[in-house]
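User: What would this chain look like folded?
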Amino acid sequence: MTARLLLVEDERAIRLALSGLLRREGFEVDQVEDGASALRRLAEQAFDLVLTDLALGDGPSGMDVLRAARREQPETPVVMITAHGSEAIAVEAMKLGAEDYVPKPFDNDEIRLVVRRALERTRLARENRWLRERLARELGFESLIGSGPSMRRVFETIQKVAETDLTVLVRGESGTGKELVAHALHERSARRGGPFVAVNCAAISRELVESELFGHEKGAFTGAEARRVGRFEAADGGTIFLDEIGDMAPETQAKVLRVLQERCFERVGGAKPLRVDVRVVAATHRDLERDVRDGRFREDLYYRLRVVEIELPPLRERLEDVPALAARFLAQLAERLGRPPKLLAPDALARLAAYPWPGNVRELRNAVERAAVLASGDALGAADLALPEPGPEPASAAATTLPFAEAKRLATERFERAYLLTALRAHGGNVSRTAEAIGMVRQSLQQKIRELGLREEDWSRPEGPAGGTS
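Assistant: Here's the prediction, encoded as structure tokens.
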């Protein structure tokens, strides 16, 4: 796309020469001869760059144009043209936000270079901002989807503790979205401008885990040919996410405990203590209480990590969120591939809601993405999902402490809620069409909706206050 420039110059000959030069370079140029006209243009139209003389005769000066551009179009770079001997004023302009300045007399090559360099820097800054916004959407709080009470508790806890520096322990089965919770905590904290460093403790060998976390000095061990910065040091000023911390070796647990207590450590092979300012978020799918009793996990580290605990429910316990999650994954895949998103047919929605999802949200994402890529047509049917026939649904630990009748009632209620929400969403919330499609009498469906406490907003707005996922 052609860049649009605003040229502000009171000397007609210079204005015409610069305008011709920039047009020959392929730019679209709007030219004005005074500061007042420039202020009006900035208030009315968007520009990719402003090139203004510092001295503009009577009326608003080039500095006024700079201030207006920073106010009206803060992402638009401003390049100042200065007279010989006014470098001090040019430096002042740079302090106020000017991108660059060109002293008179100048040559054409200098103007070309300064303008293209300013546009390139601005393009990169804009792309980085868009990338940060996209990552915030995909990995921040808004990427979590959930409408049930268990996910709403997760959202409330994130909201309350994100702005603090408290250590958080995220618990849940594999694939429930523990790293997304860590990202959400980071993106909603004062550390959002700092690094987010994720470490899968289960994926690093016992021999290398300390070097990975704390770094090493040159010659610390065979193969250590240069100093290496560890993950804690790289996370300074931000957040470190220690995934699957329950699989960490006991000797490494002791060093992590020291970092939590004293905020300092030494590189492997080093003697100098290094201080870090990091927030620690840890996650595990293990029963840490049992590991503490069995001596596999340090009790003091357990209590240091468990300042705030967030429990992510398995997907089988929040089946009402499956349609919204599936739709989100299809939309994200379509964006990556540059294609229109595929839809889910009613039989596919029913199949998704009836499946127990032992692999949780990660399995759901893989299933719908695989179906979207391999299936022909604009809508996915149940057969396209190619889901295995479910075996007996595993009971949750909480369910096994209940009497059989109560556990059965809760499981039935969860299924009915998920099934009816899926059917209502598939038929646009129309109760009559939904009842006909699922073989119920309309009055019976209305009664069941009341019994389950379902409201229109539950099927018309499937996402929670921010949403829960993968």
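The domain at 141-313 is CATH 3.40.50.300 (Rossmann fold). If you want, I can go into more detail on any region.
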